Predict the structure.
Amino acid sequence: MAIRNSSKALLVSNGRILVNRCVARTGEVYYDLPGGGQHDFETMEEAVVREVLEETGYHVRVVRFAALAEEISDYILEDPGMEGYREYAHRAIHIFLVALAEEGKEMPTETDYQQQESVWLSLEEADELMFFPVQINGKISGLVRNEVPQYLGCRRWDSPVW
């Protein structure tokens, strides 16, 4: 089983954070940090800069590494319909604090799965919302303010969140 490396962004500007508002097939609203999978021969920092641009249209620069979270899914390994996504069975999520590198934004070119829009929220508002990975729920403001990277643990899940 491979490990899927993902880079996610805590993009903060003027005391607000940019997050992706997503809607599951069930109609449930959840939030995700902009970002996604690392390409071969790409650094995690390059991946987060590219992914934020693709999903939101914003050019960013990495400020610092903030946290690492992991997810493991028996569901993906056992469901024959998920055969093409086996690398998602173990995902390492590298979370970076990033800042805007340029004023303005471009049109997003590749929104994330189930992403409806990107929205700016206060850190306090973000702390109240349901995020995936769930390890960041209620911890957004702390991750932004804490200067030391944190390990957020490994979450095991047996059914799809989407």
The mean pLDDT is 90. The longest strand covers residues 60-73. The CA atoms of residues 35 and 51 lie 5 Å apart. Residues 4-157 form a domain with the Nucleoside Triphosphate Pyrophosphohydrolase fold (CATH 3.90.79.10).
